[in-house]
């Protein structure tokens, strides 16, 4: 990605790591679109808090942050006792893994890093491998998103109106994005089309982050209230939906994504509009057998009862919207069943969600996994 800053286009990644200072560096997403800032986190606990507090968010981005956080935690270990080192890294992995429960990318990222670390015979070897493996994960995230753009761009035809939900863009990954990859690729190929960004209450990632990205890329777009999509579908003003995901079940094709995704999938189905989900391979969970087993993050009621924004002075502030004294329920994600999904756009091509398991060797490499409980 290139960010336009004071008239210059500056190359940037959402997540990076500096070995010398052993710090994880993140675009501070809570300040966007009003202020662009990169913040450094000097130990793995601070990195875990940055995930939890949503300095960084989006499945791919928190996956890469967890991978770097693991390497950061490993680097901080003093001593050469391998058993003590492994116990320490277990702790680091648990802390980072517990930061946000729904996305599977951090889990998969850290499993990958640790698997590679096992090849090192000493603490020093394993530390070095951890950093290299975290960089590999981040680079693979970028490559996967670019490949999604290649497979998905032909879905976007001249003159279409495309709906997207939440932010599955640069900021939700290391770069490029998943749902936005076909959008950016089609835009670069010269096609003209329009994107509706669901506002995505309660945190408004669509209004703040996706709209900011699309503006940076020069893609025609408008923010719509979450409740407006039904009206637009009913007037044939939405031709295609592309969203990202925090966890796709390889066994059933069910898709967990930002709360409100299921509602849009039902609407798309009702109106015969194709509904695609774009994911890197780190978003596939090959173990869970039912969407009901996906841990759904319950977030603070304050997010529903009010909203964050910038005041006239440009400073970030929270305003209460709801009736004083009323409480709120705030599930962060929902689960969309396979039958509502037209296709899953992956770096390996576009798949029917019910065919993921059949293609698991291609999508996950050879895995010992059990057969699905019931085949669909
Ligand atoms: O709560 P967030 O902002 O982390 O939720 C992000 C989303 O739901 C994205 O759509 C999702 O991560 C898929 S794209 C990586």
What do you see in this structure?
With 376 residues, the protein is α/β, with parallel strands linked by helices. It folds into two domains: 145 residues, Up-down Bundle (Four Helix Bundle (Hemerythrin (Met), subunit A)); 211 residues, Translation initiation factor eif-2b, domain 2 (Rossmann fold), CATH 3.40.50. It is 35% helix and 19% strand. The chain contains eleven helices and 18 strands. Strands 8-7-6-9-12-17-18 form a seven-stranded mixed β-sheet, with helices on both faces. The chain starts with a strand and ends in a 12-residue tail after the last helix. 47% of the residues are buried. 5-S-methyl-1-O-phosphono-5-thio-D-ribulose binds next to helix 2 and strand 11. The site of 5-S-methyl-1-O-phosphono-5-thio-D-ribulose has 15 residues, from helix 2 and strand 11.
Q: Major beta sheet, specifics? A: 7 strands, mixed
* Percent helix range: 25-40%
The CATH homologous superfamily of the largest domain is termed Translation initiation factor eif-2b, domain 2
Secondary-structure content class: alpha/beta
List low-confidence stretches: 366-376
> Approximately how much beta-strand content do the residues carry?
15-25%
Strand order of the largest sheet: 8-7-6-9-12-17-18
CATH architecture of the largest domain: 3-Layer(aba) Sandwich
Report the strand count. Answer: 18
Under CATH at level 1, the class of the largest domain stands as: Alpha Beta
Principal-axis shape: globular
Mean pLDDT: 95
Separation of the first and last Cα atoms: 39 Å
């Amino acid at each position: 990605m290139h960010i336009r800053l004071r008239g210059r286009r500056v190359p940037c990644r959402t997540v990076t790591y500096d070995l010398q200072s052993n710090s994880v560096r993140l675009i501070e997403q809570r300040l966007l679109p009003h202020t662009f800032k990169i913040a450094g986190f000097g130990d793995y606990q601070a990195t875990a808090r940055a995930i939890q507090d949503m300095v960084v968010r989006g499945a791919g981005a928190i996956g890469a942050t967890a991978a770097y956080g693991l390497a950061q935690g490993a680097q901080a270990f003093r001593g050469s006792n391998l058993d003590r080192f492994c116990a320490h890294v277990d702790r680091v992995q648990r802390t980072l893994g517990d930061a946000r429960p729904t996305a599977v990318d951090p889990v998969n990222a850290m499993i990958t890093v640790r698997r590679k670390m096992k090849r090192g015979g000493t603490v020093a070897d394993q530390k070095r491998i951890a950093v290299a493996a975290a960089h590999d994960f981040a680079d693979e995230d970028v490559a996967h998103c670019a490949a999604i753009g290649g497979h998905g761009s032909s879905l976007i035809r001249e003159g279409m109106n495309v709906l997207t939900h939440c932010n599955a863009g640069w900021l939700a990954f290391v770069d490029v994005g998943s749902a936005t990859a076909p959008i950016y690729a089609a835009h670069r190929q010269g096609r003209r089309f329009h994107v509706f960004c669901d506002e995505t209450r309660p945190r408004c990632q669509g209004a703040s982050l996706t709209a900011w990205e699309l503006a940076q890329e020069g893609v025609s777009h408008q923010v719509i209230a979450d409740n407006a999509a039904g009206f637009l579908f009913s007037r044939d003003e939405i031709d295609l939906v592309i969203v990202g995901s925090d966890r796709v079940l390889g066994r059933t094709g069910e898709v967990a994504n930002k709360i409100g995704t299921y509602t849009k999938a039902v609407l798309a189905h009702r109106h015969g509009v194709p509904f695609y989900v774009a994911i890197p391979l780190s978003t596939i969970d090959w173990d869970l057998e039912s969407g009901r087993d996906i841990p759904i993050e319950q977030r603070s009621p304050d997010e529903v009862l009010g909203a964050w924004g910038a005041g006239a002075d440009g400073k970030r502030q929270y305003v209460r919207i709801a009736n004083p004294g009323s409480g709120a329920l705030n599930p962060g994600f929902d689960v969309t069943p396979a039958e509502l999904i037209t296709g899953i756009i992956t770096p390996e091509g576009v798949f029917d969600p019910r065919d993921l398991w059949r293609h698991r060797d291609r999508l996950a490499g050879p895995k010992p996994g059990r057969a699905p409980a019931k085949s669909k």
